[in-house]
Every structure is written in C-alpha cells, then in structure tokens.
What does this fold into?
Amino acid sequence: MVRMTDLNPEMAEFLREFTSPDVPGSPWTEPAPPSMRRVSLVSSAGLRLRGDQAFSEGSADYRSIPVEGAADVVQDHVSVSHDRTGFQEDINVVFPLPRLLEIADEGAIGSVAKTHYSFMGATDPLAMESAARRLAGRMKAEGVNTVILAPV
Amino acid sequence: MEDEGLATALIALVRRQAEEVRPPRALWVPFPLGRPFGAAGNAPFQRRVLTALLDLFARPAGPVLEDFTDEAPPEGESREVLDRLVVNRDGPLIEEVDGLRAWYEASVARRGRTTLGGSGMDAPGAARLLTAWLAGDAMAEGAEIDLLRLASEDLKAYYMESAVARTGATDTGAVTAWFWTRTAAGRIIQDVRSKCLSSNDAAIRDAGSYMFVPENVNG
It folds into this structure.
C-alpha cells in the first residue's frame, strides 16, 4: 500500500484515526560522504535471533542482530494486516542486510555495521525514545554514522 | 537517532504518518504492510528500493519525503499448483501437520532458514497448544495470549513455507487464500479468534480482533 484502498476496512479506519506523535523540532545530521558511511539497519518488525528473548506486545526495548546470525531470525510482531509471506520466502523483504552487504562490496557505501537492531512493532514511539537514544550511543561507539530505518 | 548525531533514512509505508511526523529523510513505498522492500526473491528490485533510500542522503536539506512509485513486480502463479497439497479443512489438525512435514523440511533445506520459532515450539507443539486451548484444557487455558499468537504465527509459517516448497507458489494472495479456506490449521486459528472474541477479558478480545485472522477472511 500502502494505499488506504488496499487495506482491510478495520486497518484503514485505524490508520485514518491514528494520531501521530508530536515530535518537536527538525533534527538534521549532515551525512558522512558515501565512502565514509558505516550503515546499520533498524527494523520495527520485532525481529530477534531465534534463541534470544521474545518481544512482548508493547515492548519498548530492542534486540541486537549481528551480521553472522542474521539469517536465522524470527519475527515477533504480529498483525492481521501484515503480510508475512514475503518475509518467509526472503528475509530481504523486511531486513535487507544481504542487499546492503552487496552494495557495500560495490563501494556505494563505506561499510556495513557488524550489528543491526530491531524494535517491536505497534509500540508507542514515544515509549521507545529512551531505548532509541541508548541505542544511538551504542551505534556511535561502534563507528556507525548512518542508519536505515525499516518499519514493517 | 538523528538528534543523537546519526544520519537516518526511513522507509514510509503509510505516507500520511511521514507527512505528520516529518522525519529527516523518508521514502514512501507503495507496498503492503509487512513488505517494506517490496518483492521476495527479486534482488534487483530490492536493490532499487534500498538505493533510492540511500540516495536521500544526498539531499542538502530536509525534511525530505520522496515517493518510490513502482509497484512490486508479481512473484508468480500458484492457484492450480496448490491443489497438489494434501490438506483437509475438516480433518484433525495434527494429521495435517504431520502430512506436510516432508515439505517443510524440504523448505528449510532449500532456503537454509525458517521463520517458524517465535513461540519456541515446533509445528506439532503449536498445533497441540491451540487445539488444547480451544478444548478448554486447564493447562492450555492458562497460556498467555502472547504464546497463543506466536503459536498461531508459527503454524502459519509452517504451512506457508511447506506450500511454497511443494508447489513453487509465490503468489501471496493465492497461498494465503489456500491457508484460510482449505486447511484445518486455518479453521482452528479462526476458532481461536472466535473464542478470544467471546472472552470476558478485554485484552483477549482485543487480541482476537487484531492478531489472528485477516479481516477479509473473517467475512
């Protein structure tokens, strides 16, 4: 979609009535030059390593997904409006780490971070602020300067 | 994150939300919820989406909201080939699950991964939990709603991954329709939804509304 006409009526009504959080200010960070970009992916699909602690509904924290374990993740976010068949067939539909690694190999970006992350879907965004700021600090400590945000 | 000094670019599935929140860089995509990068098994298309997103970092100022207007290409045909699967909507769930095992294992071997596992149970375990909960088994009655929804998703994953392995079907709509209208698992999960909706617990009723069965299947 996501076009409203493609949604089931219940979800379309929910999205029409949904009030987006009031995010003050317009933060802007000057991007690093392409060759200096170190990129990390952040999903909100409730992704985690298979053996990691499951997300509960409304969870505001995040899980870490190292590159070497990323092929074996499960998805905890559930919604009847979300199509999971793409994720089942090909992880790149939700979490395109293999594509990002290819792009880095070709030199379009500097490098791909060793660790990537996921939050839980349908959590109040404002409740996640504290964890997101902590995560930002962690990513900077790992040399990341560029983040791809991929909701689901 | 931008405020903390990281340059961010966001996939926006719902354009209106991006217009309201005004993130620094956003790319609206015309794909279904659950598919932010579009098409399964189509690396060139996925790369186009990802590259368009990375291109936003070249914009001199923001907020930036651009549109990626290409629809995801179709993924394949499948309605007829799904007939090859032996399922029985009115039969015992556990027998149906057992009957698909070889195809599920073939799927895991081919893909090298499975999305089943959120509940921590295998498919027969998930089937037994849902069936016991419906039957009012005391232990299963105490199952938390989180476990029921994850068991339900695991069962769906088992069927859909098996179906694709058996038939080569990748038409999302056809596989989804097959699951909900032809299989005992689809019937059982619809029964779970109905039981949730009749619960005295508001949280369980909400879960019944949003976590088990797509609205267009409820009819």
About this structure: Chain A touches chain B through 74 residues (CB under 8 Å).
